[in-house]
Write a structure and sequence with these properties.
Blueprint: H1 2-5, H2 26-33, E1 41-46, E2 49-51, H3 53-56, E3 58-62, E4 65-69, E5 92-96, E6 100-103, E7 120-123, H4 149-152, H5 171-187, H6 199-204, H7 219-225
Length: 226
C-alpha cells in the first residue's frame, strides 16, 4: 500500500503477481491515505506576517502525486510572493505537522524523481531546518535567441511548443515529459501519480482498467527508465 500511495520511482511490492490489482481504484486510494494541505503545514509567515498556508501553497501535480507549491508558475491561480531591493530578502517561516520532503526550485520548475539531493530535504517531525538561498542573475546576449534550440541547448520562457505535461518549459518539466512519453511508448500508460492533464493521455488513453496499473510483465522496462 505504501509503495503505491507514496510512489517515488520504485515499487518493490509490485513485483509479485496481483490478481486483485486490476480492480483497485488507485486514485481513490491515494486520496484516502494522503493528507490535505491543512493537515501537513500551518503557522505560515512571510516577512513575519501570518498568512493562510493553503491559500499560497497550492496543489501541483508531479511525479510524486500532489505536492503543495509556493510561488509556482504551474499552479492556478498563481500566487507569486515577491521580494526586491525595496522589500529586502524574503523570509518564509512555516510549521510541518508531519514528516515532509521539501524541494527548492525556480517558479518554472517542478519537483521530479531525478531532483538533485542538494535541491531537496527530508524534514522529520520535531526537526528545525533553515534554508538560505542565494540568487545569481544571468543575462543572455540578444543574439542568442536567433540560434536554433538544438544549438543553444535550452528554450526561452515563451518557447513552449511541444509541452504536453506541464504549462511552462524548464529542465525538470522536460524530464517529466520524457518520463511520461517513455512510459506510454513502453506500456501504453503512465504510472498512477504522473500528471495527466495533457494531450498525451488524450491521444493514448484506453478505458481498460489495467491501464491504471503497471502491467506485471513490463516492470523491467520501468526499472530501465528510472
Amino acid at each position: 500500500m505504501s509503495d503505491t500511495v507514496y510512489y517515488t520511482g520504485s515499487c518493490y511490492s509490485c513485483n509479485p503477481e496481483c490478481e486483485s490489482c486490476s480492480k483497485m481504484n488507485l486514485t481513490k486510494l491515494v486520496a484516502k491515505y494522503r493528507k490535505p494541505c491543512e493537515k501537513i503545514i500551518g503557522d505560515c509567515r512571510w516577512y513575519s506576517k501570518h498568512f493562510d498556508c493553503c491559500k499560497k501553497f497550492l496543489p501541483l501535480e508531479t511525479e510524486y502525486g500532489i505536492c503543495y507549491s509556493f510561488n509556482s508558475l504551474h499552479t492556478t491561480p498563481s500566487h507569486i510572493m515577491k521580494m526586491n531591493k525595496s522589500t529586502g530578502p524574503g523570509k518564509l517561516w512555516m510549521k510541518a505537522f508531519e514528516d515532509v520532503r521539501l524541494f527548492f526550485h525556480a517558479p518554472e520548475d517542478v519537483p521530479f524523481i531525478n531532483t538533485a539531493p542538494d535541491q531537496r530535504a527530508d524534514i522529520m517531525l520535531g526537526d528545525s531546518f533553515n534554508i538560505s538561498i542565494k540568487v545569481i542573475e544571468i543575462s543572455n546576449a540578444d543574439e542568442i535567441k536567433n540560434l536554433d534550440v538544438e544549438k543553444r541547448g535550452c528554450k526561452f520562457p515563451w518557447e513552449n511548443e511541444g509541452l504536453l505535461v506541464h504549462k511552462h518549459y524548464s529542465y525538470s518539466t522536460c524530464v517529466v515529459q520524457c518520463h511520461a512519453e517513455n512510459h506510454i511508448k513502453l506500456c501504453n500508460c503512465t504510472h498512477h501519480l504522473m500528471p495527466y492533464y495533457s494531450k498525451i493521455m488524450k491521444n493514448f488513453w484506453s478505458p481498460d482498467p489495467k491501464n491504471f496499473l503497471f502491467p506485471q510483465f513490463r516492470l523491467s522496462y520501468f526499472n530501465n527508465i528510472n
